[in-house]
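Note to self: keep these together.
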Amino acid sequence: MPRPPRQSDGRRPAHIPHPHTVFPLETAEAAGAETLVAKIKGVQTKKKYKPVAQKVRSVVASCPDDFRIERKIIGDPLASMPKLDPNPAPFRPQGRYTEERMLQLDREHPGFLTEAERRIMHDL
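Structure:
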């Protein structure tokens, strides 16, 4: 099917529908036949893969000094961290961490932590 002529600004003329437009089927009486007939068959296309020639390839280069990250760690960041008790107290519910949530966590992740690690986690 030849393409319809375009207007000077590149748009399709108003009286010619877009090829992807879906039209209703004519009934058998209107078409004068026993089967249903479509007026225009819509065409669907997918975007083509990008050719290998247009592939974006990384380039080995050094990072400019303007974009270099400088870390200035002063002192020991672990010095202010609280010490963990290796023998925590038995679990007691606090805030949103209820006994129900503790049991659910233990049930859904068996074997992830040892028993001692699990007691310390519940103490936090």
